[in-house]
Specification:
Elements: E1 14-16, E2 21-23, H1 25-31, H2 43-64, H3 76-93, H4 101-115, H5 127-142, H6 148-165, H7 174-183, H8 190-193
Antiparallel strand pairs: 1-2
Length: 195
């Protein structure tokens, strides 16, 4: 394998469309949009931006909900805004085994980025994003008196719920199972939400 044309040290493992040459992933990551004039259609540029945005949102999530007292779900308006969103997730996705918690998290992440101005526009890239965006837009329009800041924090809190409930031994649909159990008496975890 050839060496990176920029550093000349590491193996060139990706094709740079801006340079029309092979470069290493480190040079791609550290020089993109600085020393390299990346075209907007570059898949590495897109993935890099998504990765950085995900890290930024994760930091915001940690900073916003550091203590139990910071939980936005103690605010009645936040609960009012979250309930129709999560209820719609159950209606749209619980029986659809092609959608998992990560898909919903990723869609909410992009919506949060759009609503907070991190990305200038939002065009759904898949069916799940299209549905989640529609759900969130409908909730947004249904609660015009709730501030944008509270709505944004509520979306962030739903994302935190997904991260807390999903993955590992619990599986990547455990958040969906949890909210299904909150809205339906026959859910796997329904007994935890009754009585």
């Amino acid at each position: 394998m050839a060496k990176c044309v920029l550093c000349g040290v590491r193996k060139a493992n990706r094709h740079c469309t801006a340079l029309e040459k092979e470069i290493c992933s480190l040079c791609c990551g550290t020089k993109r949009e600085n020393e390299i004039s990346c075209p907007g259609f570059c898949e590495y540029l897109k993935k890099g931006k998504e990765y950085q945005m995900g890290r930024e949102i994760a930091r915001e999530m940690s900073a916003t909900f550091q203590r139990e007292a910071d939980d936005i779900f103690q605010v009645e308006e936040a609960i009012d805004f979250a309930l129709p969103i999560e209820s719609s997730f159950v209606n749209w996705f619980y029986k659809d085994k092609t959608v998992n918690d990560n898909d919903i998290y990723d869609a909410l992440s992009r919506i949060y980025a759009y609503w907070t101005g991190k990305i200038p526009s939002f065009r759904p890239e898949n069916r799940c994003e299209e549905i989640v965006f529609g759900i969130c837009q409908e909730a947004d329009e249904s609660f015009p008196k709730i501030s944008r800041e509270l709505k944004n924090k509520t979306i962030l809190r739903i994302m935190r719920s997904i991260r807390s409930a999903s993955g590992g031994l619990l599986g990547n649909r455990n958040y969906l199972e949890m909210i299904y159990s909150q809205f339906r008496p026959n859910g796997r975890w329904s007994r935890l939400f009754r009585g």
